[in-house]
């Protein structure tokens, strides 16, 4: 079996295609959550905290030095505000996934709880038993 045909067999399996679709949808969902956090959730939080924009919060270790154009020194900073935004995004995504899994589990439990119709032979034997009881 050639490597190309092995790859084709691998790539055309249902699980690989499902995974690819999941990754694409996950990427799009990530963009939605980023927008939700950056444009909807963080502005009110910043307003409540006195106008603080979390995405710009940073701890400057070494400020930028532009006095000498030949030797520009870039700012070195720990951007903990961006980390706070990312942490909030993670919590929203985790909660959304939790709700989806909870919904799927609830649906699967309902399907399990639904009584299955007895097989035809069991139903027939039950009917015969009931007829014999009524005869006596």
Automatic annotation (TrEMBL):
The keyword Ion transport applies. It is found in: Cell inner membrane; Cell membrane. The keyword Cell inner membrane applies. One of its GO terms (molecular function) is mechanosensitive monoatomic ion channel activity. One of its GO terms (cellular component) is plasma membrane. InterPro entries: Mechanosensitive_channel_CS (IPR019823), MS_channel (IPR001185), MSC/AndL (IPR037673), MscL_channel (IPR036019). The chain crosses the membrane at residues 16-37, 77-101. Gene3D superfamilies: Large-conductance mechanosensitive channel, MscL, domain 1. It is a multi-pass membrane protein. Keywords: Cell inner membrane, Cell membrane, Ion channel, Ion transport, Membrane, Transmembrane, Transmembrane helix, Transport. Belongs to the MscL family. Homopentamer. Channel that opens in response to stretch forces in the membrane lipid bilayer. May participate in the regulation of osmotic pressure changes within the cell. NCBIfam families: mscL, PRK00567.1-4, PRK13952.1. This is Large-conductance mechanosensitive channel. It comes from Rhodanobacter fulvus Jip2. The gene is mscL.
């Amino acid at each position: 079996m050639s490597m190309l045909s092995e790859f084709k067999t691998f790539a055309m399996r249902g699980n690989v295609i499902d995974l690819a679709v999941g990754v694409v949808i996950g990427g799009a969902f990530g963009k939605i959550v980023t927008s939700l956090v950056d444009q909807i959730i963080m502005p009110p939080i910043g307003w409540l905290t006195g106008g603080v924009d979390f995405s710009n919060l940073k701890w400057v270790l070494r400020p930028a030095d532009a006095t000498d154009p030949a030797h520009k020194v870039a700012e070195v900073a720990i951007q903990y505000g961006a980390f706070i935004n990312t942490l909030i995004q993670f919590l929203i995504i985790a909660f959304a996934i939790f709700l989806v899994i909870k919904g799927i589990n609830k649906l699967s439990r309902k399907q399990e709880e639904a009584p299955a119709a007895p097989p035809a032979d069991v139903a027939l034997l039950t009917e015969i038993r009931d007829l014999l009881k009524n005869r006596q």
